[in-house]
Structures are given as structure tokens and as C-alpha cells.
Amino acid sequence: MPDKHEQCDNPTCQEAAAVRVHLIHGIHSNGVGLTGQLAPYFRDAGFDVFVRRYGFAFASPAILPGFVDWQNQRRAARLAPQIADGDAIVCHSNGAAVAYYIQAEHRTLSALILINPALDRDTDFHNVGRVLCLHNAGDDVVGLSSILPLNHWGAMGRDGYSGSLANVVNVDCANPPDGLPKLWGHSALWEPKDNERAWGPRLAREMLIMTNNKR
After folding, report:
1. What is the pTM of this model?
2. pLDDT of the chain along its 215 residues, tens only?
3. Strands of 128-135's sheet, edge to edge?
4. What torsion do the CA atoms of 107, 110, 111, 112 make, to the nearest 10 degrees?
5. Which of 127, 156, 158, 176 could be 119's S-S partner, Cβ–Cβ 3.0 to 4.6 Å?
6. Per the omega criterion (within 30 degrees of 0), is the bond before 149 cis?
7. Separation of alpha carbons 158 and 156, rounded Å
8. Can you list the domains of the chain with their CATH numbers?
9. CB 106 within 8 A of CB 74
């Protein structure tokens, strides 16, 4: 018999939790990627967690104008049938661009946690209840991606969200709150492992607040 997560993979499953959390990896990831390593923390907080894969991808074709957005739109369309309105997403790097298209073209999300998102700073999320954007000034990866023409890749992961919507809260991880370890770099949340052990439970608690989850 399949386990609980396999039974509830269909968004209409009656046994599914009130808010399901989907983890979406970044580019150059094979399998669960770094984001999938956060699954235990969200499960410990009581969420029904799903690690989503859109496949291994290389960054090099991004030099072609419009290619990144076209690919990410296709990835979002493939993942959207596994995600329901009201679900939440946690994503890293290019996974944030995929999540952007999921909410822009397919679903209304309850919450979104962006970890060093590879997105233009003024990218708005009109179909998400609450958004948390983790950024730090040491993220040179998204800084470099921001110079590529005609795509949504940008420096949000370095400099934070600068749009006009009130549903986005920035967290400067180079100056973290509450004694959390400083993060400096594109994947610093996972390197070293102690960073993940400190930040993982905190992100799960923030998701509980963002989704008004009472479990």
C-alpha cells in the first residue's frame, strides 16, 4: 500500500492536509536538489510535503533571449497538475522562476518562500497570499544572471524584492534575526550543514504563520 504522501499526490485527494508544501529545486540540480533537503523540517511541523522535480537543466542556454522564460513556463505547466489552489511552495534559485509561472498562469497559492530567487527584483506575485524572500548581498550567482537579456532572471536573491506589493517580506540573511547564522552566497542556507539545521526549522515555523496553520 502506498504511503500517505503517495496517496495524497492528487490535489483533490480528501486525505490531503489543509495546506500542502511543495519543494522546488534550482537549476543544475538532479533529483531533489538542495531544496528537497528541507523536507524533514516541514514534515516535523505537520505539513504534507512533496518534493517536485522539473529535471536537470543547464544554465548556458540562458544566453539566448527569451529561452529561460520559455523553458520555465513549460516546467511550470508540467508541475501545475500536481499542485492545487491554496497549496504553498518553497523554492530556490531558478525554482523561484518556475514558481512564479505556476502562480501567474496556473494556480493561486497560499504562501511562497523564495530562497535566493533568480528573479528580477520587481517581479510581483499577484496570486500568492504571503511571500517571504530570503536574500543576501553575497549572492553573485543571481547578480550575474541579472545581466542576461529578455528574461525574468534577476538579482532578487542578492538585493531582495523591490516591487510595490505588500504581500512580500524581505529577509536579509547577511544580517539575520534572532541569532540565526549569517548566510553569504547563493546556496549558503545549506553550506555548511549547520546553516540548514538552524534555518530549516525556522522556515517551517514561518510557513505555519504564513498559512495560518493551526496544527
Report:
1. 0.86
2. 223 333 345 444 333 446 899 999 987 665 567 999 999 999 999 999 999 988 766 554 555 556 778 888 999 999 999 999 999 999 999 999 999 999 999 999 999 999 999 999 999 999 999 999 999 999 998 877 766 665 668 899 999 999 999 999 999 999 999 999 999 999 999 999 999 999 999 999 999 999 986 44
3. 48-52, 20-24, 88-92, 109-115, 128-135, 168-172
4. 0
5. 156
6. no
7. 5
8. 4-210 (3.40.50.1820)
9. no
CA–CA separation, 19 and 140 (whole Å): 34
CB under 8 Å to 122, separation ≥6 — which residues? 161, 162, 163, 164
**Side chain identity, residue 168:** V
* Distance in Å from the first CA to the final CA of the chain: 26
Q: Give whole-number Cα distances, 146 to 6, 12, 62, 162, 187, in Å.
A: 38, 38, 11, 14, 17
What is the 3-class SS of the chain, one letter each residue?
Answer: CCCHHHHCCCCCCCCCCCCEEEEECCCCCCCCCCHHHHHHHHHHCCCEEEEECCCCCCCHHHHCCCHHHHHHHHHHHHHHHHCCCCCEEEEECHHHHHHHHHHHHCCCEEEEEEECCCCCCCCCCCCEEEEEEEECCCCHHHHHHCCCCCCCCCCHHHHCCCCCCCCEEEEECCCCCCCCCCCCCCCCCCCCHHHHHHHHHHHHHHHHHHCCCCC
Between CA 84 and CA 206 the distance in angstroms is: 21
